[in-house]
Amino acid sequence: MPQLGESVTEGTITKWFKQVGERVELDEPLFEVSTDKVDSEVPSPMAGVVSEIRVAEGETVDVGTILAVLGDGDSAAVAAAESAPEPEAVPAPEPVAAAPAPEAPPAPAAEVPASAAPASNGSGTGGTVLSPLVRKLITENALDVTDITGTGLGGRITRDDVLAVIDSRATGAAVAAPAITSAPAPVAAVASAPAHASAPAPIARSGEGDTTVPLSNIRLRTGQHMVASLATSPHAITATEVDFEAVERARKPLRDQFRAEEGFALTYLPFVSRAVVDAIADFPFMNASVGAGELIVHHSVNLSIAVDLDFQGLLAPVVMGADGLRLRAIARDINDLATRARTKKLLPDDLAGGTFTISNSGSYGTLLVAPIINQPQAAILSTDGVKRRPVVVELPDGSESIAIHSVGNLTLSWDHRAFDGAYAAAFMQRVKDILETRDWAAEL
To answer: Which secondary-structure segment (H or E) carries 238?
Structure first.
């Protein structure tokens, strides 16, 4: 198990791309791992044939654990054969004495529940084998392990099994029951439950026409972080309307040339990012983290960019040192991070160190989105849809006229512990001024 970031100590194998006996090339994806920060495809460190897989899908193990063994074709076949368990001998049936008359067959012996079967990984407690992550969840939520039905290999209790019980307790649902036997808990009860309890539990189909979709790791962790953020920061929002005509006049004539040179489209996001970075120079408290009774003002602007993963979740990889980059460099870094996020090529360190976040909903034509702060940062900015609209413009002679410009909103969610509304409003005005008045064509 590789060290996928400084703070990562364990990972869960979510998928093997190769099986025993199959060949893998150098840098070809070998397995997918899920950590508490990101899901990543891990390339093979060497070429060879998979001779042994020691950690099954769904298992959580510490960094440094041997996951698989690779070798050449011959040694792989030998190792696989040697590692295969020998079949158990089946004892011959004992002779049965003849009975004077046939009797009713005896009742079948009760089957041993699957959850009682021993698992191959983890450490045992009270006869039940648990992985470190599962053990932590059970302990933190004061659960009785005998109340949890394992659905993993050999009846092993998985993380999803534990979360299902936690969620069912929060909503009053019975896990794996043929139908929901009690009404959902009131909203107040759900709000006080753990973060992941705010979404339906991955229970069995509860009614004709309904489908239950288990929450993915990223959905659960997003919920946990967002609920924690709302509970931590007194959120306030400040929105402003921006005339993007200066941006559009620079962007539109160069769109085809930019795509040919860079290999991706030139959107409004790099312009907004550049304006935000420059405005932070005048409003440094925007680039801060809230600590225990203190505001930690960061000298370097590390820009977190929220990336949508095909509607399956959000990640916020970081453009490090964005205050030292010009427009094209920011655009390149944003595109690189977004591409690697969607192809599961990010490492946890790509998500660390952010000091200010931008969430980009504008491509969907939104009017106003109030995002939740990315803890422990002090603020997050949301872009909204840019549309052609009639606006009042001032002519060179001082008179006014109506013109058609590209106009959109920007919305800032901010932590009221860090500063007040006047500071937030002044920052937004500075971002607006930069976007509306800079010679963007010259920078491009």
So the answer is: strand 235-243
More confident residue, 254 or 132: 254
Which residues are 238's β-sheet partners? Answer: 412
Return left, alpha or beta for 227; rule: phi > 0 is left, psi -120 to 50 is alpha, else beta: alpha
pLDDT in tens, 203-212: 444 467 899 9
| Contact residues for 34 (Cβ-Cβ < 8 A; gap 6+) | 11, 12, 14, 217
**Cβ neighbours of residue 350 under 8 Å, at least 6 residues apart?**
38, 317, 318, 337, 340
Kindly report, residue by residue over 236-252, the tens digit of the pLDDT. 999 999 999 999 999 99
- The 10s digit of each residue's pLDDT in 32-45 is 888 766 778 888 98
How far apart (Å, rounded) are the C-alpha atoms in residues 383 and 276?
11
Rg of the chain over Cα atoms, rounded to whole angstroms, equals: 28
Mean pLDDT score, 191-201:
35
Active-site entry in 62, 256, 416, 439? 416
Task: Select which of 27, 74, 256, 420 is catalytic.
Answer: 420
């660390």: which residue's tokens?
Answer: 352
pTM: 0.63
Apex CA 371: angle with CA 368 and CA 376, to 5°? 155
Q: Is 416 in the active site?
A: yes
308 is catalytic: no
